[in-house]
Amino acid sequence: MLGAGSRAMAADARVLKINTLASASAVNVPLQSALRSGLGEIAGFAPAEMRPTAKIPQIAQEVIAGAADMGDADIASTLAAAEAGADLKIIGLSYNNTDQVIVSNADKTKSLADIADRGGTIAVNSIGDFMYVMVLGALAKQGIDPQKVNFIEMGSSGDRARALLAGRVDAVPMHIEQAEQIKARGNYQVLVTPWKEYDDWFSAVIMATSGWLKADENKKAAVAVLKASLTAFRKTDSDYAWYKTQVGKYASSKDLKAADDTLLKPVWQQLTGEIKAFSDMEQLNPDAFAKIMPVYKQAGALKGTLDLGKVIDRTYLEQALKELA
Question: Which stretches make up the SsuA/THI5-like domain (predicted)?
Answer without folding.
Answer: 59-232
